[in-house]
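Batch 3, record 17
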Amino acid sequence: MEILITSLSLATVLVLAVIIGTGGKPMVFVTSLGETVSLLAKNKVPLFWSGLCVLLVLGFLYFFYVPAATRIGPEQPIPFSHRVHAGVKAIQCRFCHPYVGRSIHPGLPPVEKCLYCHEYIIANHPWIQKEHEYFNTQTPTPWKKVFYLPEHVLFNHQRHIKKEIQCLECHGQVETMDRLPGKRFEMGFCIECHKEKEANIGCWLACHN
Amino acid sequence: MDRRTFLKIAGTGSLSIAAGCTSEAEKTLFSLVQAPDDMVTGKAAWYASTCRECPAGCGILAKNREGRIIKIEGNPLHPINKGKLCIRGQSALQRIYHPDRIKTPLLKDKDSWRPLSFSKAIQLLKEKTLAASKKGPNRIRMLTEVVGESLLSLFSKSLHKWQSAGPLVFEPYAYESLKRANKEVFGLEGLVSYNMEDADLLISCGADFLETWLSPVEYARKFKVMHALKSGQKNLFFHVSPYQSLTGANADLWMSCHPGGETAIVLGLIKEALRDGKGQHLPESVRLSLARAVAAYTSTRIAGLSGIRTEHYKTLVYRLMDSRKPLILGSGSGSADANALQTNIAANLLNLILDPDLTLLDFANRHRVETAASRSQVLNFFQALEKDSVDLLLINNSNPVFAFPPENRLKDALQNGSVFVVSFSNFMDETSRLADLIFPMGLPLETWDEYEGKSGIGSTLQPAMGRLNETPNIGDVFLESAFEIDLSENNFKTYLFAHFMRKGIIGDEKGWVQTVRQGGTFSPTASDRPDRSVPDSAADLLHSISKPLDKELVFTAAPSIRFFDGRGANLPWLCEIPDPLTKIAWQTPLLMHPKTLASHKLNHGDVANIRSKWGSVEAPVYEYEGLHPNVMVMSIGQGHGSYGRYAENVGLNPVQLLSPKPEPLSGGPRFAVHPVSIHNTGLSMAMAHTDGSRIQHGRKIALSVSPDALKHGKPHKKHGLTMHDFPFTLPLPEGYDPKRDFYPPHDHDTYRWGMVVDLDKCIGCAACTAACYAENNLGVVGLKQMIEGREMAWLRVERYHDPVRMEKIMFLPMLCQHCDNAPCESVCPVYAPHHSKEGLNNQIYNRCIGTRFCSQNCPYKVRRFNWFDSQWPAPLHLQLNPDVTVRSKGVMEKCSFCVQRIKQAHGIAKNEKRMILDGEVVPACVQTCPTGVFTFGNLMDKTSRARQMVEDPRRYQVMGYLNTKPAVIYLKKVVQDI
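Prediction for the assembled complex:
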């Protein structure tokens, strides 16, 4: 996606530069190459502005996509920190994701479960108040999905847990992260591990449904 | 535009593209507020309940995933259906998620509907009942569908409180003539059940027990036990009727007769039995009066009177006298047509003569539908509304306006200004449309209830899913409005509990929990026929028999296996799955005999106008050989004027031609009418056929074998490579033959899934197809696409006529054969059909680019292409199985052998560190088949049931001569030549 956007933007800028440079007659650029070169030299000012545009776009794309800050993942309805809970407080993954060992889904903690502790711990914190509000109004919390699998793939957590695959092997070191970055699992990632561990690699029998 | 503006737009455009796109669409995961104990996300929870799609009352298990029901299966513990379910039961869950379901009460406000809150509606109900009961007695009337004993008693009590008489139970098929016949002969006005499985000869005079009659799943199972191949022999089943229904198509011989001619035939059989010295146990007086009644029925007279062929009648007599335990069934569902009562009386008497102890009749476990009132009672009920100045009419989940012929003027009775009509219904059907208040109720899978399909068993209903709307339980509404009961303390659930305690079904809370958990208490009462002497008058009615209609054209409305009485017509699956006999979906053709077609200068597909004294209808004609030439048949159920988007103006309603007068003797409805006139409108119509042809063109698709040929099996022939001598080849590595195989063998380790389909058991009911639609998220394409041949069924039941005797029909379930040498695999340019280690032919949806080469190359035509994205109008999409991908436009799909279930079994087996057991994987079609046609298993395992069945001498592979090596192995149907 990023590549596509970059190339599109660059192509636009290039076309503009050519149009401006040739004074609205882009074919001149092709028909007489020598003349074009001299024209380029004559039009230093428009070329300068075009160059600036290119730089601005590239700069924007760089700051938008590359720095780590843009990869911290989507903003959640409540800024839950895995670092605090799984890292600092060392709460087991399965306390909040209890079905991971017995179902295909790991399970998300119900609002009620958060309040087991947060009735007492920082109970008056505004975000915890929001959690209380979810509970009192019987509203499910709309968490943003961060680990993304295409719909035609059915991942079975139970089987992986039974085979003692650690959570972090796919989900990364969540105990070091506040907000979880989005991750899009791709087929190569699964296949590589399945091959290595000599697990099933049948299309339907393994993953697809 | 100047250059400057262009630059501005282009610049902002490219920047906003760069800023506006994120790399992926965000999805939301909702966490629960409180986790219910029994819900594990990703795992199914099963709730036992009872099916209420027809009065049979089969036990069901509702599969709940993340709070919503995604599939219904039969409850294996339930004595009525033993884990099996019919096409209508499978489709029941579409009712809950129906997009046209009414969510709040609607009050009629001149010509529009005003939504009300439930509390306001109950308040209104209270006011109306109070006002009516103050005016005097019997100002409130109630009509209800067949309900459980507890609900019926609550209705009665409530009406009593309102100083009115109890409710009238209405069922369009109320078996009036059968009930009356049972009263005349056995002194019991009820509907006994039949131990059909113990019979050795079955004769049905029109009773369509495989479709709608009494309890179709139960009788389909019992019929196939009776009709099974045992030591090279099969018991016989004869169907005597002017119309060969699906039940008739499953008979060993269908004997055509004039409408109303069945009686003469049964009377003739009585005469023969008495002559044979049977019936000595009957009192002398009864025997004599009987002998007098049947004296005139000589075989020549019967042939003349009934139109049965003499050799057919002789066969009947010979076989009947030869059998030890024959069972004779009377007329079809609800029918009270010409002589139906006499036929039923005669059938009862014949059973009595041939079997003194009546061991095949179960008097203790009677069908609940016996509580229904007769058609004439219901008609009187409506006619009395104005006369008795009734103020309030309550209708519970019934649609009499659709079921009654328009001439009965039910519309006028309901629209009579003085009566306030409340319809407790979830759909805007014909009756609700005329009501003043529509009060939607919780559906059977959402609420607490109890319904015993047969007396003697208790069968419970429980909420099996989270609520989609606030519709209350009808029991709660009556408790609140009649008795002012505070529902937070006492509700219908506690009422049910008390009812069960009172009946002694449960002893305490624990018993209740156990009962609800297994879906009821199943200890059928032992059959004890009270010693009832047969009244002398039993044979009296047999003297007055109307003459069978031998000359006139007769129009018959037949109950439909798909829509029952019309209540199923709004469910898209039932419309989409074609009729088992005609293979036409979404339309209602008029079945006519080829001779009659020719004599009226009509062709198959022409639109004919049929007119009776009471009404007329324009219908496309369908050439069908399983008819008496004078009879025309149209199935009941479609042609709704109002019943939601899938039913409105779809198909035709034959009821509008029928006589409004009930039959006087039994009070039942008449489903046949004469005289009728028919003429060609000059138009013709494209019909939504799903069959390519009526016959097999000698291609060896559905095969049959005679018991003799089976017994004396031909000596082992030398194999060749032609259609006739191609060897049977299992889809296993040992089936590899370098002489005829181009590709190397597949190496299957441990498992090679395969299926054995016993054609001898298949009745063609299409329950398997409905189960497949539910399990695998199959799309519904609708009439227009159906005509284009774009249906999506992964499993279809093919119907083939015998080219020599066209009335003889065979059924063959056709699904992906999971060939070992699959023609689809070798032609795909992108390798989307993939052969798995376990022999499954996988279609990789995200790899498919939609060339459709595979479909072209598949000789079985089981691959389906998504021409469009399938639509599930909300909330119908909540039914989708989360374990199965929803395919998108441009993708080929087909049967997967329910790979999600195989994977689940793999998971369980691996967790327990063992192999998958035989019978552990049960695909949806295998699970639901009422007669056990399918056996699924591992062909690599020599001890598996499927593998052992493969050794059957009847085995064959459909078009195996193409060297496809299918993993679906068929067993030939055993056809007895009579």
